[in-house]
Automatic annotation (TrEMBL), chain A:
<keyword id="KW-0813">Transport</keyword>
<keyword id="KW-0472">Membrane</keyword>
<keyword id="KW-0764">Sulfate transport</keyword>
<dbReference type="InterPro" id="IPR050093">
    <property type="entry name" value="ABC_SmlMolc_Importer"/>
</dbReference>
<keyword id="KW-1278">Translocase</keyword>
<dbReference type="InterPro" id="IPR024765">
    <property type="entry name" value="TOBE-like"/>
</dbReference>
<dbReference type="InterPro" id="IPR017871">
    <property type="entry name" value="ABC_transporter-like_CS"/>
</dbReference>
<dbReference type="GO" id="GO:0043190">
    <property type="term" value="C:ATP-binding cassette (ABC) transporter complex"/>
</dbReference>
<feature type="domain" description="ABC transporter">
    <location>
        <begin position="3"/>
        <end position="237"/>
    </location>
</feature>
UniProtKB/TrEMBL annotation, chain B:
<feature type="domain" description="ABC transmembrane type-1">
    <location>
        <begin position="62"/>
        <end position="265"/>
    </location>
</feature>
<comment type="subunit">
    <text>The complex is composed of two ATP-binding proteins (CysA), two transmembrane proteins (CysT and CysW) and a solute-binding protein (CysP).</text>
</comment>
<feature type="transmembrane region" description="Helical">
    <location>
        <begin position="134"/>
        <end position="158"/>
    </location>
</feature>
<feature type="transmembrane region" description="Helical">
    <location>
        <begin position="12"/>
        <end position="38"/>
    </location>
</feature>
<dbReference type="Pfam" id="PF00528">
    <property type="entry name" value="BPD_transp_1"/>
</dbReference>
<feature type="transmembrane region" description="Helical">
    <location>
        <begin position="100"/>
        <end position="122"/>
    </location>
</feature>
<dbReference type="InterPro" id="IPR005667">
    <property type="entry name" value="Sulph_transpt2"/>
</dbReference>
<dbReference type="GO" id="GO:0015419">
    <property type="term" value="F:ABC-type sulfate transporter activity"/>
</dbReference>
<comment type="similarity">
    <text>Belongs to the binding-protein-dependent transport system permease family. CysTW subfamily.</text>
</comment>
Length: 370, 279
């Protein structure tokens, strides 16, 4: 079932959690809400579930207005970050809860409930643990019980709040793979919240990047990584180097390096920034074609397959990072304090919007040729 | 063995000292006085003992004590949870004040409480006069005893349930709601089972306290033999008549009853707490 969020604003006593957020979640997709803490992603999830009420705006499920509907009637599966399992109930009773609290008319028979619970236990690979208590299970198992409990009531879609946040790395990776598999099997719309960009990229069909109560960008993992809409998205999706400079007549100057861009506005000189991923930095011992600047190596950190260098530009004194393969690093024979030539490659330029009338600086992406 | 124990010693040593102190402390204050009680009671022959206990006046007082204490504890179990709920879940003006008032029955000399209650619930008192219009006598009846025992037992349930409610994970309620449970279902099936161990503890404490309560009850009960005489008062009466053996016989019965009650409560706690055992 598709979800439509229309112009939602939600404020608490002294801050605004969501500012006019609109979002469309297509049916059957696995969508990630990605953002730093305090970006409003969990609030949005809770609003969709009906655990909170928006100040303005509407929430539609499959075109049907659900804004004022009670959480109990929304038929939404919600999995909490810390599972919120009922500690005094066995796993069986936890999963059966949603069915057994139904009114007598709609409640399935005891036998039907039993069959359904065991089916779900098999689905989450926990058969045999039906009579344990939540306290006897590991974190990953509890998370799967929470999922089974949410699935038991046959929800219209699943909402997961930081589903793997409280688990260690290995279990987390297993569960990710498993969730992906589950999604393919059930074809259910799943919306999950995460602050981990890797998790979002790995799992989701669509990623919604949020910041300070707004949606910054919606797109496939490919799109948001390679065509980030603004500096926030760019820098949130991985390590990043930032170079400050100015743009004039379509040319961006970053220290001694100059780049041709497709910027066509003729509005004098404006501040511009260039972002660059550390793995795009190319290091050479002599200058070649392209935009080479000199830099001094400050520190070398070998990180297994790659080596990270902390560098300082000699022309602008800006600090930045480079990541090389271990092989390339040993070919170079460089050490700390040595001076190298650095090719600035694949930069993303953003110009601070000339019509800066909004309180928040808006950045316009521009294309450059390399 | 010796080297192992020294290796496992914590950062704060002193097991021997603290354990020794605990044993001496408990012996001097609890175990020795209680065993003397049994010793004293054993100076009576079995026939005398049974005769003392089965005396009409003694049986009547035990009945009055147990019934009023039980009902008072029940009352406190229900309304104590309510008070704890209000204090733990809501923010309101004067919350700290109300929170403080709950402890008043602890802090107040019980005799003061007894006198205050008597003056209010007597037939010409503030509340007593309206009750009298309805033909209900509160002071100097078992009803009055029940009022006094409810008063002194109030803090027990509130103070045992309150911390449990404060630590309560609201997400469990939200989870129940997303699963379609009504508010009533959520309370009965999710919240109440969690509170139950604390409620039972509070109930047991209030009940035990009520059984032994003397100060506040003697004023409001009227102390009519066979009608409103409670066990502690009867023990007091026997002592005043220098019937030490009789007094200790009744005391022994009360002691054994308390023991049995403690066992039952502990068993119930264990049954209910099973889900937490593996933590």
């Amino acid at each position: 079932m598709s979800i439509e969020v229309v112009n939602i604003t939600k404020s608490y006593k002294n801050f605004t959690a969501l500012k006019e957020v609109s979002l469309h979640i297509p049916e059957g997709e696995l969508v990630a809400l990605l953002g730093p803490s305090g970006s409003g992603k969990t609030t949005l999830l809770r609003l969709i579930a009906g655990l909170e009420q928006p100040d303005t705006g509407a929430i539609l499920f499959h075109g049907e207005d659900n804004t004022n509907r009670d959480v109990r009637e929304r038929q939404v599966g919600f999995v909490f970050q810390h599972y919120a399992l009922f500690r005094h109930m066995t796993i069986f009773d936890n999963i059966a809860f949603g069915l057994s609290v139904r009114s007598r008319k709609t409640r399935p028979s005891k036998q039907e409930i039993k069959e359904r619970v065991h089916l779900l236990l098999r689905l989450v690979q926990l058969d045999g643990l039906a009579h344990r208590y939540p306290s006897q299970l590991s974190g990953g198992q509890r998370q799967r019980v929470a999922l089974a409990r949410a699935l038991a009531v046959e929800p219209k879609f699943l909402l997961l709040d930081e589903p793997f946040g409280a688990l260690d790395t290995k279990v987390r990776q297993e569960l990710r793979r498993w969730l992906r598999h589950l999604h393919e099997k059930l074809g259910l719309t799943i919306l999950f919240v995460t602050h981990d960009q890797e998790e979002a990229m790995e799992l989701a069909d669509q990623v919604v990047v949020m910041n300070e109560g707004r949606v910054e960008q919606v797109g496939s993992p490919e799109e948001i990584y390679h065509l980030p809409a603004n500096p926030f998205v760019y820098s949130f999706l991985g390590r990043v180097n930032l170079f400050r400079g100015r743009i004039r007549d379509g040319k961006v100057r970053l220290g001694e390096a100059e780049f041709e861009t497709e910027w066509e506005h003729n509005s004098g000189e404006l501040p511009a920034v260039g972002y660059m991923r550390p793995h795009d930095v190319e290091i050479a011992l002599a200058p070649g074609d392209g935009h080479f600047v000199q830099a001094r190596i400050q520190h070398i950190s070998p990180l297994g397959p790659i080596v990270r260098l902390d560098l300082r530009r000699l022309d602008t004194d800006e600090l930045f990072e480079a990541e090389l393969s271990h092989q390339r690093f040993s070919e170079l024979h460089v050490e700390e304090k040595s001076t190298v030539f650095v090719k600035l490659n694949n930069l993303s330029f953003y110009v601070e919007s000339p019509a800066a009338t909004t309180p928040r600086p808006t950045f316009l992406p521009i294309q450059a040729s390399f | 063995m010796k080297s192992k124990s020294s290796r496992n010693r914590g950062f704060l040593p002193g097991f021997g000292l603290t354990m020794g102190y605990t044993v001496i402390y408990l012996s001097l204050l609890v175990l020795i006085p209680l065993s003397v009680l049994f010793l004293k009671a054993s100076t009576m022959s079995w026939g005398e003992f049974v005769g003392t206990i089965l005396d009409d006046r003694v049986l009547a007082s035990i009945r009055v004590s147990v019934v009023t204490s039980f009902l008072a504890a029940c009352m406190n179990a229900v309304f104590g949870v309510l008070v704890a709920w209000v204090l733990a879940r809501y923010q309101f003006v004067g919350k700290r004040f109300i929170d403080g008032i709950v402890d008043l029955p602890f802090a107040l000399p019980t005799a003061v409480g007894g006198i205050a209650l008597t003056s209010i619930y007597a037939e010409n008192g503030w509340i007593g006069q309206y009750a009298a219009e309805w033909g209900i006598k509160i002071a100097y009846t078992p009803l009055g005893i029940w009022v006094a025992l409810t008063f002194i037992g109030l803090p027990f349930v509130v103070r045992t349930v309150q911390p449990v409610l404060q630590d309560w994970d609201l997400q469990m309620e939200e989870a129940a709601a997303t699963l379609g449970a009504t508010r009533w279902n959520t309370f009965i099936r999710v919240i109440l089972p969690h509170l139950l161990p604390a409620v039972i503890t509070g109930f047991a404490l209030a009940f035990a306290r009520a059984l032994g309560e003397y100060g506040s009850v003697v004023f409001i009960s009227g102390n009519m033999p066979l009608k409103t005489e409670i066990v502690p008062l009867l023990i007091m009466t026997k002592l005043e008549q220098f019937d030490y053996a009789g007094a200790t016989a009744i005391a022994t019965v009360m002691l054994v009853a308390s023991f049995i009650m403690l066992l039952i409560i502990n068993y119930l706690q264990w049954r209910i707490n099973k889900f937490d055992a593996a933590r």
